[in-house]
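Hi support team,

I'm filing this because I wasn't sure whether my run with iron/sulfur cluster finished correctly. The job status page said complete, but I'd like someone to confirm that the output block is well-formed before I use it downstream. Pasting the exact inputs I used:
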Amino acid sequence: MTDKAPIANALLRRASVPRYTSYPPANHFTAAVGPDSHAAWLHAVPEDQPVSVYLHVPFCRRLCHFCACRTQGTLTDRPIDDYVTRLGMEIWRVAGMLGRRQRVSAIHFGGGTPTILRPDLLKTVNRDLRAAFDVAEDAEISVEVDPTEIDDARLDALAAMGLTRASIGVQDFAPEVQNAIGRAQTVEVTAWAAAELRKRGAASLNVDLIYGLPFQTSASLRATLETVKEMRPDRAAIYGYAHVPQMARRQRLIPPDSLPGPAERLALFEISQRMLAWAGYKPVGIDHFALPEDALAVAAREGRLARNFQGYTTDVSPVLIGLGASALSKFPQGHVQNAAASGVWAQAIDGGRLASARGFALGPEDRCRAEIIDRIMCDFAVDLPEVASRHGFDLGHFAPEIARVTARFGDEVALDHGRLRLTASDGRFARLLCAEFDGFLARSDTQYSRAV
Ligand code: SF4
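And here is everything the job wrote out:
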């Protein structure tokens, strides 16, 4: 019998690992995939294939210290107006390469701060999208919302666009924590935004929280979770803060000694799991919770949970079209990312080109590993013989991985004729187990976040 605690502790001390919102992770994308592959993959989308669309808005009024997203602060609307004009050009260019008004089953506005767009700009983007694409009547229209950057006119514009789902950034309500992360946001303004989004048609509301923030304590996180519980979102996501100041320069404003240590971090993670479970939420994947009747919880129960660049989703379309600077697209053939710098993206759009700058063409083994990693992230289990054979491999191909998992994970992973299952229900080892099947990790010098 293996002594579980030492193995668990050793695993959690291990090197940081990717979040696996794609396989391979975006740091393995190269310029070998650019506009030519992107155009060919758009041309190859079947006529009857509904696609998902992601629009990236890279602007923010405030630049939160913890945030590692590539965002641009702006106090004026000028760059935003120009950006929306080019976004319209990109929408029509991509639609032209598809060769038809492709059916769209889901549209997601992410950022940055999508709600920084004035109502007239939201209307412009919506008009271009609906003219260039055949947006399904029942399409999911979701928006990431900063409660401090939204008003009645924008809420009305979102409602007119057919908003069905919204995600509100909260992180933590404790003033000391908010002060340290440069993100002042009262409970009142957050509750107001949540209530108004519901009135405007957001049938599903998500709240984003973070554990491991500077000056965050068990008491402050408990208080935040109590407040969130009263708002009764349909979903909550709680992510571990990744302190990588060498990559995210803004994080240099956060003193390292204000951050909870590994043991406190683990305690914060466990508090969030317990409190959300007590409040009636079902765990979904490694960092999401949803009310039992919410589509995400239903998908998790029925083994239909999927993963895309934004995290967990019910969207299973094999094609995701990313628009805007740094936006990521997904095709059965591989992944593509637009130029991350707005200026470079703008030059490509003005020059009549696709703005893709890098990507990755998937081979048979990459596809197989991607599916193994997806199933572990979504189900905490994978039927290796079944997945491997569908991709043309036999179980023996993964013998080294199975041997490593057996040696490293002990009782944390149950192994039955090649079927792997994490024995702990909270998925804290999921990313570490995925890492065992990551064919790129050994070659990577990227510093990822801690698994918990
Ligand atoms: S957390 Fe949101 S508002 Fe803050 S900098 Fe990041 S994208 Fe902008």
